[in-house]
Amino acid sequence: RRPAARSVPRLSCALGGALTLVAPVLPGCGWAAMPGLLGQALDFGRISGEESSFCVVLGAQWGDEGKGKLVDILAQNVQLCARFNGGANAGHTLWVNGKKYAFHLLPCGMINRSCKNLIGNGVVVHIPTLMKELEDLKEFDPRAIERVFISTRAHILFDSHQIIDGILEAESGTNSIGTTKRGIGPCYSAKAIRNGLRFGDLLHFDEFERRMRELIAWSQKRFGDPREQDTPQQSELRKALKEYNTQHAFDPQGGKKGGVPNIEAEIERYRKYAQILRTQIVDSVTLIHEDISRGYKVLVEGANAALLDIDFGTYPFVTSSNTTIGGVCTGLGVPPHKIDTVIGVVKAYTTRVGHGPFPTELQNEPQNLPDHLEEYIGPDVSLERKGHTSGPYTIKKGQRVKVGEMLQEVGHEYGTTTGRRRRCGWLDIALVKYSLLVNGFDSINITKLDVLTGLKTIRIAISYRNKKMTEVRLPRGYFPSHLEDLKEVVCEYETLEGWPEDISACTSWEELPWNARKYVLRIQELLGIPVSWVGVGKERESMLKVPPNAALDSSGDPRGRSRSPRRPRLSV
User: Is 92 an active-site residue?
Assistant: First the structure.
């Protein structure tokens, strides 16, 4: 038996009469608790992205949410997949048929042999990295390069930008923002001060060569001369820039990590790139609008995430581009009304790389925080950790585990681009609500739910309070714009029951244990928008579709017994 229903929603039907939903509205988790969710359920094909004409997938936290997997799934049924921002500082890892693909610049639509892929004008492109990714794809698709198109307006990121990035990061000292040193900031700076070069310039190579020499000379004049306060690393980088020996900059010992020995070699390298890419450099605005007018389905993937946005993120610990929904319009040249669906990708917990305040943080990069202890009730775990001084990571049933460390190790929280260990913490709903306000998500994709398996209880930060006035919640969707204010935030937590079952082999929503489903539906209820997808493993098949009536059944026990809604435990 289930709790008594409050009401049965009835909707007017286009053909006359009324449409009655078969599932009742139940206390605690029903549609009544989420205004607008009922109508969205009837439009599920659009909000899940499967039947969307123009779908955008964005990170809702600090990046590394696993956006690539959903993009890969949706890309199997679209004709154009596009990137609009960032550069090789982004990283998507995909597992398809047991094979790993790591993309930093290429859109995930490359895994669909019938899909065109566009690198938009808002992206900054390091061409050697792009060419390496295309080379790595040759086994999968020997003609992959023919499916990649690059905007004439996209800026080129040179080795000199990467060297300058390293110099500036080392120069910052204690004020370092923890960049990936991929040259993203210096390249966007060149774009802003208007001395950058674009892909369209490659089509006029004599002019390109002249301007490239000018750009490198400008960089050498401003960053190439040694300074008294330089560290040994900075001195080496300045010398490499002055000589334009980027081989030495990237690998001082052996010179085997890319780069060129001098500027003449760099000019010749780009002359070859211009010949290879000539047919793939296009007017992207014309291309995307022609595809839209033909009725082609368009999928757009974001790099980085909302809290790394240059305007809306935790400045200055952000990236150098707009990672939120407005960046789609400026980074591709499409008006807002063309966007049909926006999906936010949310990890089942929170991670970030680099420096800056982190309200729900449990464990940091060097793993020296006290952490939160919790009883482990799941299956035994043993994971190899190459080069780790403590050997394999192991957990046994009944053991008390450090939750942050467990999230890092079980979740393999090491950056695709940097290899750095990510900082980990509980899911922060207040942060995601802010991201929702900025981006206007139609639905949410929760990823890496399987990583939480085995925790006896799981906490969710449901709101922020100020340390000096903890009795008052901060407004819904508010996120401090200043780091000093963010440091003053304390979280109000809700505690839910965990699950012991391994869910990584589940292939449908109905196979998930009750408490795992309850965790997902509680997130849905707190955000007020539907969860359309849940990820429980690394393979493409591990992304589960959440049925549109899932919330209607959320108070029922899948084993057939009734469950009274339990008020979650709260703590600050």
Answer: yes
